[in-house]
Amino acid sequence: MKLKRSLALALAGVSMITISGAVSETYAFFNLFNSAQAQTKEIAGETVIVSVSDAAGEMIDVEFPKNPERIVALNLQTVDFLDALGMGDKIVGMIKESTIPEHLQKYVDNKDIVNVGGMKDVDMEAVMSLQPDVIFSSDRTKSKYKEFSMIAPTMSAYVDYTGNFMDGYKNLAKQHSAIFGVEDELDEILAEYDARIARIAEFAQDKTALLGIFAGGLNTLGNDGRCSIIVDEMGFNNLAGGEDVNHGNVSSYEAWLKFDPDYMFVLDKDNAVGTEAVAAKEQMEKNNPIIAETQAFKNGKIIYLEPSDVWYVADGGITSLDLMITNIEKGLGLPEYSAEVKEEADKTIETVTVSVSDATGNMIDVEFPKNPEKVVVLNLQTLDFLDAMGLGDSIVGLIKDTIVPEHLQKYVDDESIANVGGMKSVNVEAVKALEPDIIFSSDRTKKNYDIYSAIAPTMSAFVEYDGNFMDGFKTLADNHATIFGVEDKLEEILNDYDARIAKIAEFSMGETALIGMFVGGNLNTLGSNSRCSVIVDEMGFTNLKNEAVDYGEMTKYEQCLVLDPNFIFILDKDMAVGTEGAVIGKEVIEANALIKQTQAYKNGNIIYLESGAQWYLADGGITSLDQMISDIEKGVGLK
Questions:
Q1: How many helices (H) and strands (E) does the chain have?
Q2: With CB atoms 3.0 to 4.6 Å apart as the test, which of 102, 128, 463, 565 could cross-link to 620 if both were Cys?
Q3: How far apart are CA 381 and CA 387, in angstroms?
Q4: Please, are residues 529 and 465 in contact by the beta-carbon 8 Å criterion?
Q5: Does this model's pTM top 0.70?
Q6: What local confidence, expressed as pLDDT, does residue 461 receive?
Q7: Strands, DSSP E only, in 427-548?
Q8: Confidence at residue 577, expressed as pLDDT on a 0 to 100 scale
């Protein structure tokens, strides 16, 4: 196909302009054309149709020569694009009277490239004299679109801030790539940028921000203003999102303190365009007591958008966007994007669906990451499981304000594991700050299930006492094993436990028992659907405690004598949880005259559950159950 361009006809149209004050300029323009060339020029070669914006902002289809050789660039995004794709030698004219980012300065210094003015004041005669194949104008000169298009096919090249930034950016880049035939190269670049932005967005989840621009003072940017990529794609929640002015709305430092975001992003326009002014960083952080009160300042989370000229005048460029993304990555402390990081990011995260209990006790299916690497543990059963399976190094947060069985104390002492509170008083903000892959909550915190699940996939990990203990234990263990991929190892452990419990059950056939909990100096007897129920459910002792019987004013000691079981099992809760100043249950119980009359006492069959912390706090744990079974084995003489 051949692209025909008749400047004579086009400029005849220009000569008809009769707007006051423009006639002489029009005729001068027309005369310059006549002196340069007054015949129809035919350009041989392939062409491409691209939809571009005209002076009124309407989209029109324009035919461009494919791979044009003579380019006039009236914007820095196009210069950046051509430079990044190795086509800078096609530029014959550009705006040099402007702020130019450092990586593009070589084109300003190149004397073979003609200076055609500045961003707002283009030298039209200089443009026409260059006889360009294509002109790339800008948002600041789009009102002249008709005049430029009379010289050569023209594209207004800029990113519209009123929409999603990356949609506009990609559209602009693809318009360029279609004309220059570099679609494949562009796709590779955009794929990397998407991956890097997605990594930032993952970091930014639930984080608040303010966007500011220094232009003779601090102005606040809205979601549709400059730097909107930080909100649109990178995912920060702009607390001033309602602002809709491109250059921002003037706002006081007091307003920023009132918003008090997690992060502040500040663009120094004065520095970007070379205005003599005090640097934004100095104004923000030096002798500014109001900003000094903000959490962003205190936490070192004020990020200055640099290079500032890139952010302000070239944010639609290829290299410029790379520099912008790098600026945010460094500001957030993310590792430099590399082949290794890319490989890690490209890994498909394997997931597994597990049925868990929600805040109301209903069973719901939840998708969990397989083999999570950052685990927050709010219960001791999960802690025990991870320890037993050699997975303790995945723990990043743990409830440390609680009594912990001795074999798990090392995790409390590990300073690299964050303390997120206690069993009943979890520090939710501390949990959120750890950005866990998964959270294991407990029966004591299940009412907050929705809060935790909003942070990361969550499993309430506990054994229900109102059913068969081992069924609940195995379900809990299986859920953990499924998530961490240790099903075979768990099966071996459970087979061993089943065999040992079966031996106890064989011993206990026909044996009666009472199960007591000693707390606050008093003895309480437990039913079959309560703590220590494994002694009844699986180990086979017949619990003489009957919840349906009214024992009247009878004391627990009197009950023990009246019921007179073969065995009495005692859990000393005060010792288990380390109650300060508590009396030892064994001393009180065996000094009691009524207890001394029971056959259990006379036959030496009062068994004290020595692993008290395991029985009371971690009875759903792997190692804890091993120790619980051992307590019974020793007590009945099987070990």
A1: 29, 27
A2: 463
A3: 10
A4: yes
A5: no
A6: 86
A7: 438-441, 458-460, 512-519, 522-526, 542-543
A8: 82
For residue 410, the SS3 value is helix
Helix axes of 183-204 and 165-180: crossing angle, nearest 10 degrees: 170
For residue 353, count CB atoms less than 10 angstroms from its CB and return exposed for 0-12, middle for 13-18, buried for 19 or more.
exposed
CA–CA separation, 236 and 635 (whole Å) = 60
Give me the residues paired with residue 355 across strands.
365
CB-based burial of residue 47 (10 Å sphere; 0-12 exposed, 13-18 middle, 19+ buried)?
middle
Radius of gyration over alpha carbons of the chain, in Å? 38
Q: Quick check: 608 and 514 in contact, CB under 8 A?
A: no
Q: What is the pLDDT of residue 72?
A: 97
As to burial, measured by CB atoms within 10 angstroms (0-12 exposed, 13-18 middle, 19+ buried), residue 499 is exposed
For domain 3-158, the CATH superfamily is Nitrogenase molybdenum iron protein domain (3.40.50.1980)
Distance, in Å, from the CA atom of 80 to the CA atom of 75, rounded to the nearest integer, reads: 9
Delimiting residues of CATH 3.40.50.1980 domain(s) in the chain: 3-158, 186-343, 351-488, 489-635
Angle (CA) 74-75-81 rounded to 5° is 120
Contacts with 467 (C-beta within 8 Å, 6 or more apart), sequence order: 529
Q: Is 283 in contact with 270 (CB distance < 8 Å)?
A: no
Q: Are strands 522-526 and 512-519 parallel, antiparallel or unpaired?
A: antiparallel
| Mean pLDDT (10-residue bins), the chain, 639 residues | 39 32 41 41 75 91 96 95 96 93 95 94 95 94 92 91 85 94 94 93 93 87 84 92 57 86 94 85 86 93 94 91 95 81 64 90 91 94 94 96 91 96 91 94 86 92 79 92 95 95 95 91 83 88 74 72 94 87 89 94 94 84 92 92
List the strands of the sheet with 375-377, edge to edge. Answer: 418-419, 395-398, 375-377, 438-441, 458-460
Determine the pLDDT at residue 160: 78
202 vs 204: CA distance, rounded Å = 6
Q: How far apart are CA 589 and CA 594, in angstroms?
A: 9
Pairing of strands 218-221, 237-238: unpaired
Give 185-211 as a DSSP string: HHHHHHHHHHHHHHHHHHHHTT-EEEE
Q: What is the DSSP string of 57-75?
A: S-EEEEEEESS-S-EEE-S
Is residue 121 classed as helix, strand or coil in its secondary structure? coil
Angstrom distances, CA of residue 531 to CA of 192, 256, 468, 515, 573: 55, 53, 11, 9, 11
Helix (H, G, I), strand (E, B) or coil at 151: helix
Q: Mention the CATH class of domain 489-635.
A: alpha beta
Name the helix (H) or strand (E) containing 155: strand 154-156
For residue 91, the cross-strand partners are 71
Helix H or strand E segment including 221: strand 218-221
Q: What is the DSSP letter of 5?
A: E
Fold of 351-488: Rossmann fold (3.40.50)
What is the structure's pLDDT at 177?
95
Q: Tell me the fold of 186-343.
A: Rossmann fold (3.40.50)
Peptide bond into 457 cis (omega under 30): no
**193 vs 486: CA distance, rounded Å:** 37
